[in-house]
Design brief:
This protein is of the alpha+beta class. It has helices spanning 34-46, 79-86, 145-155, 204-216, 222-231, and strands at 10-17, 53-54, 63-72, 94-102, 112-123, 135-137, 157-160, 176-187, 190-197, 246-253. Helix content is 22%, strand content 30%. Strand 8 (176-187) and strand 9 form a beta hairpin. It starts with 9 loop residues before the first strand and ends with a strand.
């Protein structure tokens, strides 16, 4: 690798995937993850196992419009030909969208300055063409979107979000994040929650959505959401929304 010019050593890749048939991003012993599929193709190109490093993990069933990962590979044929080579034999639910050479100081995870997620809810019985990409909720009444918006605004800012995650790390680990944006919009039967932050804890977006949905149907109040946030402790009252409605939309870099 030392003989390869630095500009050809590290590659930044943007990919999209339908997470329905994958076991998540992270490599699994039995295979079936997005990382496994990409590394298998890279191994064919390099003749040995090549590891990729993503901006973060997504769970089984979660989708991505623009996941970012990087890897080091001595490839001298340009980004366009590498993109074409990477796309060969990939599963149909996985697409390579962009490839470019980057500095060796770039890291898909540690260089990221923020992420944007979108969560889609469908009010009613969703048809088979959108069901894998939404949380379909059938109830006789509509949610109070205005109350959800009030609760969402109260969560924005820099806070300890331990109460809205499935965090299982050390007590000394940092659970403070800056939530830059948390929007709730309804159009017909579609309710969309957009979340943007400098980083997210494990299952944080799905926990925020679960809490907002509970507010929408009167199971929780916006005031209780603030109480949970300030407590710093997870409570069973905060439900975790199912994975299929979640999609990683963008990863930000300086």
């Amino acid at each position: 690798m030392s003989s390869v010019p630095p500009s050809f050593a590290r590659w930044k890749v943007v990919c999209a995937y339908d997470g329905t048939s994958f076991t998540g991003w992270q490599s699994q012993p039995g295979g079936g993850s997005i990382q496994d599929a990409i590394e298998a193709r890279l191994t064919q190109l390099a003749g040995k196992l090549e590891r990729v490093h993503a901006s973060g993990r997504t769970d089984a069933g979660v989708h991505a419009l623009a996941q970012v990962f990087h890897f080091d590979l001595p490839w001298k044929h340009g980004a366009a030909r590498l993109k074409a080579a990477l796309r060969v034999n990939l599963p149909p639910g996985l697409q390579i969208k962009a490839v470019r050479a980057v500095s060796s100081s770039f890291h898909a995870r540690f260089s990221a300055t923020g992420k944007r997620y979108r969560y889609r809810i469908y009010l009613g019985d969703a048809d088979p063409f959108i069901r894998p990409f939404v949380w379909a909720i059938e109830r006789p009444t509509a949610p109070n979107v205005e109350a959800m918006q009030v609760a969402a605004r109260s969560l924005c800012g820099r806070h300890d979000f331990a109460a809205f995650s499935a965090f299982n790390g050390s007590e000394n680990d940092d659970t403070v994040r800056t939530l830059r944006r948390l929007d709730v919009r309804r159009t017909g039967r579609h309710v969309t929650v957009t979340a943007e932050a400098d980083g997210f804890l494990y299952k944080m977006v799905r926990s925020l959505v679960g809490a907002l949905v509970s507010v929408g149907w009167g199971k929780l109040t916006p005031a209780q959401i603030i109480e949970f946030l300030e407590s710093g402790r997870r409570t069973p009252a905060v439900e975790t929304a199912p994975p299929q409605g979640l999609c990683l939309i963008r990863v930000f870099y300086d």
